[in-house]
Every structure is written in C-alpha cells, then in structure tokens.
Amino acid sequence: MAKDDAGHTEKRDSKEESRLLRRAVEELSVLNDLAREIGASLDSGRIMQTIIRRSVQAVGAEQGAVALLQRDAGSELHGRTLVRASEGSSSHPAFHAKDAVLGWMMLNKRPLLANEPRIDNRFTGVEWHDSVRSLLCVPLLVESNLIGVVTAYNKRSAGGFDEDDQRLLSIIAAQSAQVVENARLHEEEQALLRVRQELQLASEIQGGLLPDSHPSLKGYDIAGTSIPAREVGGDCFDFIEVDESRLSVCLGDVSGKGLPAALLMANLQATVRGQVLVDPRPRKCLERSNKLLHRSTDVNRFATFFYGVLDAREHTFLYANAGHERPILVSGSGELRRLEPGGLVLSFLEDALYEEATITVEPLDTIIIYSDGITEAFNELDEEFGEERLLGLLRDHAGESACVLIDSILQTVRQHAAGQPQADDMTLVVLRRSGP
Fold it and tell me: What is the CATH number of the domain that holds 309?
C-alpha cells in the first residue's frame, strides 16, 4: 500500500511539474511576443493597446485597462485611462480605474489583488459596478516612480485571480514600463518640436508685419525696430503713408507676452491700418480702433498705443496717446520734454475718448517713441534701466542719426542688463528733422 501511495505522489508531482513547465513556457511565449511587438515602436497608444491586449489574454480576464498618471497645474497626481480592451464576448461596460485604487497604488506601489472588492476592507465605502467581480492591478514603475497602472477585471475562470496571475502581470508591467515612458517622452519631444516650429513660423510672420524698410520723407530721418523677448512678442511699430507729405507713425504694447499677445497685436495693427485709410486723424483713429478692439477682445486684455501723424510740409506732429509711455522730444538745443497728454489704454472702455495735441518740429528736433521694455530692463541687482538713464543717454546722443541713436539706446540697455535675460519686448521709433 505504501508503494502505491508513493507512486501516486510521484505521479502528482510529475503532473504538477508538467503544469508548471507548461505555464512557464506559455509565460515566456507571452513575454517574448510582447517584447517583440512593443520593442520597435514609439507610438505610445499602440504600445499600450498591445500591453493591455496581451495582459487580458495572459491572465484570462474579461477586460483590462492602462491608466497613466499625470500632474495637473497644482502638482497633484491623477490617473487618466488611456486604453482598455475586452476579451471574448463580454457585454459589460468599460471599467475605469477607481480613484481609490489609484490612490492605493500611489501610496503602496505594489500589486493589488482583490477577488471580492465589495467586501475588501481596503476599499470601504467605494461603489463598484455590479459587473465587477474581481480585479488585479499592478504598477508601471520607472526608477521607483509610479507612471501608471495596469488593471485586469473579472477572471474568466472560477476562483478569481491567483498569485501566478499577479506574478505574470507584474512581469508584463515591469517589462513594459520603460518602453511606455520612452514612447511618451518621444511624443512629448515631438510635440515640443512642433510647437517650436510653429513659433518660428509665427515669428517670421510677425516680422513680416513690421516695416521692412525705413520710410523716406523729405527733410526727415526716421527709423524703428522691435526686439521680442520671446520668439514672438506683443510690441509693434508701424509707418503708414497718408499722402506724399504725411506719414502715420505708431507704436503699441499689448498686455502679456508670447503668442497670445502677438495675436492680439496683429489684430490691433490690422485694425489701425484700416482706420488710417478711413480717417488718419489720431483722435478719430484711436477711438474707432478702441471700439473695435473692445468688441473683439477678452476683458482681461488691453494695449497701450501711441499714434501720430507727421506732416513734412508743415513740420507738425499731430498725436494722441492711449496709455502708452510718453514720447520724448529732444530739441536741437538739447532740451528734453515729454509729449503730453496721455489717455486710457485701448480695449478698456468701449466709448473711451482721446485728446489730440500738436507740436511744431523744429530743425534738428528728435522724437523718441519707446516701449516700457527699454526702461524696465533689469540687471543682476534687480535695478531697472529707468527713465533717468534714458534721458541722460538722449542728452549725450541727441545729435546722432535715427538708426545710430536706436543702436546706442539698445547697446546701453544691454550693457545695463549685463547678460540678464530680456524680460520684455523692446521697441523704438525715432523721428529726426534734418537741419535747416
């Protein structure tokens, strides 16, 4: 009898060894197939779809899902289910990873097996869909950082998921995590590259909206430039010919920076150009432009804008100011004064009114129109370039030509900043009447 028992034991051991060997071969086949399918791809969606399909088949589940973790603006981690798959003819709705499960995984970073989740004390108070009988969840870890979870729902055979299922799904997750992360990083890099290309194109387009040459007006030397702090900016300047002897000159600064500011500035520039053709008078042009901008712009957006009309025959400069830095007039004798008055920024009130003023431009007079990126340039000690430095520079360089004066101002501002990053767009326009 003892001999028969020993024989039965050996036979059972042999069967168990055969079962384990078959399972090992099946698992190895699953892992090899998975590695081959995902190893050559950088498409994160396709990779994750392959992972979940193989996972559902490998552990005999009805359904599975991959959720990747991401940080919101408040640096809080949360999960987003990106792909899911069903096995066989399951008619159950698509299951999503519960916040409670994700929270447990974030805290523990290890496999979670729950064959009776409704009575599992780890999830007291969690409401499960009636169709969820069991679940197996394993972490996607990269250098001990949780980047996502793989979850299988409802073991198709009786008894629920077991330790072998947990071990196999954990191996699949371990094998897949770095591949998923590499694909995601590659896609983020490609997205960033596309953004940079679009910004470069936007920069070229914006540059094309600015004057490509200095205007030629008898008796006057006129120049302008704009240097954005980023690829695109919210500053602009423009020269618009009214007739043979009159030239509209404007310089604006939109609130904010980057692409949103650049888009609004392009809108403003187009609006002003259109209004100049209707009536070039500064007050009328600003009032109509303000009304149109107010109707088409978000309430939190506005623009400062200076607009003037230079008459080379009468040697007058008629202007209006919508909240912009007051231009500086340097007389031929070296005296400095501001061009008053000012007014309300554009787009703040729909029916804002603007006041005009006129000055006579004498021989050797120079008018400097600038944006606050000039005076608000900071150095490493957090000191502004400031108005006093600008006024002192103009006293010393007032006799220079328009282009040379612009270069002198920019060079001095850069020397003050001493390598500090440019914080705001810098825009300058210089009008200088020649000698008698």
Answer: 3.60.40.10
Q: What is the 3-state secondary structure (H, E, C) of the chain?
A: CHHHHHHHHHHHHHHHHHHHHHHHHHHHHHHHHHHHHHHCCCCHHHHHHHHHHHHHHHHCEEEEEEEEEEECCCCCEEEEEEEEEECCCCCCCCCCCCHHHHHHHHHHCCCEEECCHHHCHHHCCCCCCCCCCCEEEEEEEECCEEEEEEEEEEECCCCCCCHHHHHHHHHHHHHHHHHHHHHHHHHHHHHHHHHHHHHHHHHHHHHHHCCCCCCCECCEEEEEEEECCCCCCCEEEEEEECCCCEEEEEEEEECCCHHHHHHHHHHHHHHHHHHHHHCCCHHHHHHHHHHHHHHHCCCCCCEEEEEEEEECCCCEEEEEEECCCCCEEECCCCCEEECCCCCCCECCCCCCCCCEEEEECCCCCEEEEECHHHHCCECCCCCECHHHHHHHHHHHHCCCCHHHHHHHHHHHHHHHHCCCCCCCCEEEEEEEECCC
Q: Are residues 213 and 138 in the same domain?
A: no
Q: Are residues 182 and 211 in the same domain?
A: no
- Same domain, yes or no: 178 and 217: no
pLDDT tens digit at each of 436 positions of the chain: 555 665 556 666 666 666 655 655 555 556 566 666 666 666 777 887 888 888 888 888 998 888 888 755 444 445 555 555 455 445 556 665 667 888 888 889 999 999 998 888 888 888 888 888 999 999 999 988 898 889 999 998 888 999 989 988 998 888 888 888 888 887 888 888 888 887 787 777 777 778 888 999 999 999 999 998 888 888 999 999 999 999 999 999 998 777 788 888 888 899 999 999 899 999 999 999 999 999 988 878 899 999 999 999 999 999 999 999 999 999 988 899 999 988 999 999 999 999 999 999 999 999 999 999 999 999 999 999 999 999 999 999 988 999 999 999 999 999 999 989 998 999 999 999 997 7
The answer to whether residue 196 is domain-embedded is no
pTM across the whole model: 0.67
Residue 191 maps to a domain: no
- In terms of domains, do 180 and 224 share one? no
